[in-house]
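Intended use. Records such as the sn-glycerol-3-phosphate ABC transporter ATP-binding protein UgpC entry shown here are meant for training and evaluating sequence-to-structure methods. They are not intended to support clinical decisions.
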Amino acid sequence: MARVELNQVRKAFGTTDVIHGVDLQIEDGDFVVFVGPSGCGKSTLLRMIAGLEDVTSGEVTIGGERVNETDPAKRGVAMVFQSYALYPHMTVEENMSFGLRMTGAPKAEIAERVHRASEILQLDALLARKPSQLSGGQRQRVAIGRAIVRNPRVFLFDEPLSNLDAELRVQMRVEIAKLHRELGSTMIYVTHDQTEAMTLADKIVVLREGRVEQFGTPLELYENPANAFVAGFIGSPK
Ligand code: ADP
Ligand code: MG
């Protein structure tokens, strides 16, 4: 089970509070999108869910276990960033298998997982290439492939498509939706693209200055926005 729960999560950097007591329950297998203006704390929340950043108070649990008390290798979380830092000297196949090789997984298992991920992402024909020989969209697929091979319970995406041009963004959005259907993993996805949010999300979290303004399905937010701020973000008439 990969239910993700945040209970009264606060985060301060120095004396500045950036996350103010956030409560969230994300069901196993849900696709949840975080939206909100730049600086409202989306990345900080994701990093706390990943266990990459400590909470100042409160707790984050995945499958009932506190993230900061779980061995990083056993958290079952994989994160995909906007700047897909691939290793330039390694092939696509090596880039995808590197993290797994570090865990000491058996060779045959690594090969099988890379094979499966490259099938899902249609990277089969590109496995021997170096990142410099790939398009932006292909590189981003490799970055997602690196996450898939780790077989995570929870995928965290931090504006993964914002460096791509409009056409590729649409294409990748469709692929990410397909990935969610095929893998059934819990996915938490940060974007400021309203279309991405509305089309990908089972539920949307609207954030403002470190607080949750509203949490609901795209339809709920569209038809019944909690306030003008939410309406402005979702594009409904209120
Ligand atoms: P978003 O991803 O929504 O743009 P962030 O989570 O990156 O927002 O940042 C939320 C707030 O926390 C911002 O005011 C940012 O300047 C601040 N912040 C983020 N990381 C740090 C840090 N390591 N040290 C100090 N302040 C930070
Ligand atoms: Mg951010």
